[in-house]
Structure formats: structure tokens, C-alpha cells
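Students often ask what a holo structure prediction actually looks like on paper. The answer is less mysterious than it sounds. You provide the chain, you provide the ligand, and the output is a string of C-alpha cells encoding the 3D arrangement of the protein together with N~2~-sulfamoyl-L-arginine.
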Amino acid sequence: RMTWKQYHRLEDIHGFLDYLAKTYSAIISVRSIGKSFEGRDLKVLRISNGKPSNKAVFIDGGIHAREWISPATVTYFINQFAENFDEEEDDIRNIDWYFLPVVNPDGYEYTHTADRLWRKNRKPAVGRQCAGTDLNRNFGYRWGGKGASANPCSDIFRGNRMFSEPESKALGDFIKNTAANFTAYLTYHSYGQYILYPWGYDNVVPPDHKTLDEVGKSMADAIKQIGGSKYTVGSSSGVLYPAAGGSDDWAKGQGIKYSFTIELGDTGRYGFILPTSHIEPVAKESLAGLRVLAHYVNKY
Ligand code: 0X9
Ligand code: ZN
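The corresponding C-alpha cells follow.
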């Protein structure tokens, strides 16, 4: 059974998605959009009321294996929308939601069985001296630029070419090839409590950065009001560091207006090893931020 009182293994998360698709088959479907290097499914859950006029939002988690709060938060969103869809506000019901809670299932399982602080996927590099590509350096927008390493043993290894990894390739192909009106792309990471918009590849901002800043700040306000946590809003490269090949930049480059990386809690006391007692508070306040995003998606 799924709870938000502990972190779950991949099998449980996938079982939960399949259960929801079975239970709420009128609005929910699940499909595998590809397989990880080690052959695990990349499962996307879709929630929709089927209105053709709907805009679409894509949400992912678990790009980085050790950031366990991310899949936990994304599954919390899924559960909330699935269990209460009829009672949800119009802003939620009139969006086609696509969720990929674990982009990097091999890495995620590896953090459960072998190395709790593993970050990358698990595909061995050519030459095999080290395993793993940083999926968030492997996307095809300004790939190979600043903040990405060509060294396979680095934790920020960019891969041998853009989209060299089955997981990033499947995600990219899905967004490109799905007939949905994607208006927002949200990717959940940890930690630090940031709401980040493009660009990440260098310290420059897109033409609509003022809108993105406004949306981000409204999300941060809602989070603070619900849970008290303070989120810092800004461009990735401005408030963090330049890092090219991120999924957020790629989504923005595809024309998806609201592209955000959300770095969940905490701010560093526990970091990646966030105690399970934090899951519900973090996820709950994040949902308040997501509701604000949904409002903007419907409005503009
Ligand atoms: O470095 C990253 O990939 C992200 N931070 S994390 O600590 N979760 O690893 C930030 C990514 C921000 N976006 C881009 N740089 N494109
Ligand atoms: Zn991350």
C-alpha cells in the first residue's frame, strides 16, 4: 500500500500507478514510455477529464536517484488528484496531467540497494571505467556547455552525446510526440528550496522571464502560506550555477512556456537524507504551489 510516511521502492510506486488506472479508469491511464538501461519501465500516468480544449502539464520526479523526496512528492500529487478529482477546482480538472514519478528507476533502485547517495543513471560509459550519466546534463539544449563534465567518472557526466541515455531519450520523445498542448513542464529535485526557471545553461534569461518570475513568486507565496517554508525564486544559472543539458532548458526550448525546476526541501540540515516525517509537509505545501501554477496555465 502507498503511504507518504515512508519512501517506497520502485515496484510499490508502479503498483500504485497501476492500481489508480484500474480504479479510476474513466480519467486515469498508465503507460510505459520506454525502458531504462536495466530494463525497468518508465511509467507515465495521465489524468484527464477528456476535454479537447485542455492544456497539458508534464511533471516528473526522480531524475536524480538520491533525491527521494521528489518521487514521494510527485506521487502525493497524483494521489490527491486521483482520489478527489470530482471535487477538485476547475483549474485542476481542466488540465491534462502527465506524471512520470521516477525518470531514473535504475539509479533509484541502486540508492536503495547499494549506494544511498548515487545521483546518475546506471548505464556504463564507453570504456566502462565508470557507470552513469547525469540525466540532467544529457538533454539536447546547449548540450555539453557549462557545468557539465565530459568525464564519465564525474557526478555531472553529460553522456557521450545529447540524449545518449534511454531515460532522457524516452522523456524527450514522449513530450515531442504526444499530441498534447503542453504549457508547463515541472521537474522536481532536491534539495535547497528553490523555484528555478531557464536558462540553466548560462546566466541569461528568456524574453518572458518576468512572467516566469511572477509565477514562481506566486508559487513560493502559496507554499509559504500553507507550510511556512521559504522558497527562493530565480533563474537556474542566476541563483544556483550554470549547468547545460537540463530537462528544464530543453522543455523551454520546445516552446513549453512554464518550465520550472523545483528543488524541494530541506535547505541542508538533512539534505538528500530527508527524514520520512518531512514527506507529508513538503508534499502538501508543494501541492499549494502546483495549484497556483495550474491557475496560470488556465489563465494564459
Ligand atoms: O544541478 C542540477 O541538475 C539541479 N540541481 S540538483 O541539486 N537537484 O542536482 C539544478 C538544475 C537546474 N537547471 C539547469 N541547470 N538547467
Ligand atoms: Zn536533482
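The mean pLDDT is 98.
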